[in-house]
Amino acid sequence: MPLDPSRYVQLGTVECYRILSGMWQLSSSAWGKYPNQDEIVKSMREYYEAGFTTMDMADHYGPSETLYRRFLQNLAAHPGPSGLPPPRGFTKWVPSPGPMGRKEVERAVRERMERMGVRCLDMIQFHWWDYSDKRYLEALRHFKSLKEEGLIREVALTNFDTQRLKEILDAGIPIVSNQVQFSLVDRRPELRMAELCRATGVKLLTYGTLCGGLISPSYLGQANSPPAPSLTPSQRKYMQMIQTWGGWSKFQGLLKVLDEVAQEKRNQGLEADLSSVAVRWALDKDFVGGVIVGVRFGITSHISSNKAPFHISLTETDRDRIERAAGTGERLLQVIGDCGDEYR
Description:
Layout: E1 8-11, E2 14-17, E3 19-22, H1 37-49, E4 54-56, H2 64-77, E5 88-93, H3 102-116, E6 121-126, H4 135-148, E7 152-158, H5 162-170, E8 177-181, H6 188-191, H7 193-200, E9 203-207, H8 233-245, H9 248-267, H10 274-283, E10 288-294, H11 303-307, H12 316-326, H13 330-335
Parallel strand pairs: 3-4, 3-10, 4-5, 5-6, 6-7, 7-8, 8-9, 9-10
Antiparallel strand pairs: 1-2
Helix pairs in contact: 1-2, 9-10, 9-12
């Protein structure tokens, strides 16, 4: 049965649900104590059966890869509803500087296969810390070979800039996506990378689109920014972005406009809040393949609200109002640099 193109994007040979369930929250106890793994797996299954078929994880996101294996085992033992596409697990490799020979790269791939309990990785997303060390090209050539040998379905990047993405594509290495930060606060991808994506077909998988949950009704109308101790690690990171972008007062203006647009959608009988409007705005960009929304499996469930962006549409007037409140990405581009430069 053909997949709904409004909810799925094809990344090479892999179908990706356009709202991915992010598992960064498993990387640290700073988000709070997690329940036992059975509860997490149960929650992962609930999201999957609700249609959230794609999960984003990493080698450094705590036990995310091994939990995905347990989820697959649970699904194999107790099959879910028919008609759903198979689950997809997108993982990452974020190596420290060092040798990038065939042996090292294949070992990294097989480690992830073992942890995730799969015979072939759906996607490996590769990060590199230092562009002056050109061994990232060597690693990616080995990934290409491993893809041709059937150990990886698709090769992707995370936090690479436009210059290096073009260099990699020009080297003949097939890349289907690049995972980068993109939101109404951080619009840097529109300034450089979007044009390359349109020319090559590479899609962006975006994180930080809700600024770690700061773009939410919970923070609307708060005159003062929340104290740092009350924030998660993700929110502390995005508070720094907000301050560089324009500050808390400007951020409140953006939330107000998003809420006004959401209210207009609710007046039409649609489920919408300012968060779903912000996600819908990102999904409407032609260079965006999907938006990663963090999920605290087993603690909270936002299945209905996470689906809400699929039920609303934005008019040109909506987008103009929202983008006037957001401004461009020029300020962050000047201060930080291109996509991913905040990590270098």
